[in-house]
Design a protein that fits this description.
This protein is of the alpha/beta class and about 260 residues long. The chain has one domain: Rossmann fold. The chain has a seven-stranded parallel beta sheet, with helices on both faces. It is globular, with a radius of gyration of 18 Å. Bound molecules: nicotinamide-adenine-dinucleotide. Nicotinamide-adenine-dinucleotide binds next to helix 2, strand 2 and helix 7.
C-alpha cells in the first residue's frame, strides 16, 4: 500500500461491536495485535491470549486509554489444561464470550524428510487443535444467548504454490473444513462461523524472517493487485464479519489477498 493510501485508511464503525466480549488468540502481535487494536477501537471488551509476554504487555500499555482497555492473559494454547483454565477465568470475569477470533498460529518452515511424529503433532497443535477447543469452550454460552460469531484464520498458502510449509498448509486446509462443519451445527442457535483467509500480509515476523526481494516480486506478480496486503486489511474484513452487518454470512471462506491466485 502506498504511504498516502496507508494514511487515508480508517476503519468503518460497527455500533453493535461496542461492549461485545471478544477473545482474540495470538492477539499480542502481528495480525492478532492489529485485531486487538481494531476491536478495542470499536469499544469492544477484548481479552487476548498469547505466549509472547513482552509484546502483549506493550500492546496492553499502548491501548490502555481505550474505552475498555484490552486485557492480556498469558496462555500457551497448545496446552489444553491451560486453555480450559483460561476460558473458565474469562467466563468468570466477563460472564461469557460473544466473538471468538481463532487467530494464533506458527508458520515455521520444514522439509518433509525432517518431520518426526512429535514435530507433526506440535505443528497441528499450534495451528489447528486449539481452534477446536477454544470453540468448544465458548459454545455453551453462545448457545444459551442465541448468538455468537466465530472466525477461524486460514491461509492463502495452500491455495497457491508454496513449499516448506507442508504441515502448516495441512492444518490450514483442515481449518476450512472444520469451520464449515461447525457452521452447519451451530447456525440454528444464531451462531455464525467463517474462515478469514489472509494473503501475504506484511507483519513484523514475515518481514523479519522470510522477506527478500525475490519473494516480494513473486507475491506482487501473483496478485491481481500489485500492492501488499496490510494487517489493517485483515482487521477490516474481520470487523465486518464479526458485526451484525454480516448477520447472514456463515459457513464460508473470505479472502483478503489482493487476488493472489497466480504463481
Ligand atoms: N502474515 C501472513 O502473511 C499470513 C498469511 C496467511 C495467513 N495468516 C494467518 O493469520 C494469522 C495471524 O498471522 P500472523 O502473521 O500475525 O502470525 P504471527 O506469527 O506474527 O503471530 C501469531 C501470534 O500468535 C501467538 N502464538 C503462537 N503460538 C502460540 C501459542 N502456542 N499460544 C498462544 N499464542 C501463540 C504468537 O506469539 C503471536 O503473537 C495466523 O492464523 C496465520 O496463519 C497470516
Amino acid at each position: 500500500m502506498s504511504d498516502t493510501k496507508q494514511q487515508a485508511f480508517a476503519y468503518a464503525t460497527y455500533p453493535d461491536l461496542a461492549g461485545k466480549r471478544v477473545v482474540i488468540t495470538g492477539g499480542g502481535s502481528g495480525i492478532g495485535g492489529e485485531l486487538t487494536t481494531a476491536f478495542a477501537g470499536q469499544g469492544a471488551r477484548v481479552v487476548f491470549l498469547d505466549i509472547a509476554e513482552e509484546a502483549s504487555r506493550q500492546l496492553e500499555e499502548t491501548l490502555s486509554g481505550s474505552a475498555h482497555p484490552p486485557k492480556f492473559l498469558k496462555c500457551d494454547l497448545t496446552d489444553l489444561d491451560e486453555l480450559k483454565a483460561v476460558f473458565a477465568r474469562i467466563d468468570e470475569e466477563l460472564g461469557g464470550v460473544d466473538i471468538l477470533l481463532n487467530n494464533a498460529a506458527n508458520d515455521d518452515r520444514h522439509e518433509i524428510e525432517d518431520v518426526t511424529p512429535a514435530y507433526w503433532e506440535s505443528r497441528i497443535n499450534v495451528n489447528l487443535r486449539h481452534m477446536f477447543f477454544c470453540t468448544q469452550a465458548v459454545l455453551p454460552g453462545m448457545k444459551q444467548r442465541g448468538q455468537g460469531a466465530i472466525l477461524n484464520f486460514g491461509s492463502i498458502s495452500w491455495h497457491i504454490p508454496h513449499t516448506q510449509l507442508h504441515l502448516y498448509m495441512t492444518a490450514k486446509a483442515g481449518i476450512e473444513g472444520m469451520t464449515r462443519a461447525l457452521a452447519r451445527e451451530v447456525g440454528k442457535y444464531g451462531i455464525r462461523a467463517n474462515t478469514v483467509i489472509p494473503g501475504a500480509v506484511r507483519t513484523p515476523r514475515q518481514q523479519a524472517l522470510w522477506h527478500n526481494p525475490e519473494e516480494e516480486a513473486r507475491i506482487l506478480a501473483g496478485q491481481c493487485m500489485p500492492e501488499r496486503v496490510e494487517m489493517q486489511d485483515v482487521a477490516a474484513l474481520t470487523l465486518f464479519l464479526a458485526s451484525n452487518n454480516a448477520r447472514h454470512c456463515s459457513g464460508r471462506e473470505y479472502f483478503v489477498d489482493a487476488g493472489w491466485y497466480g504463481a
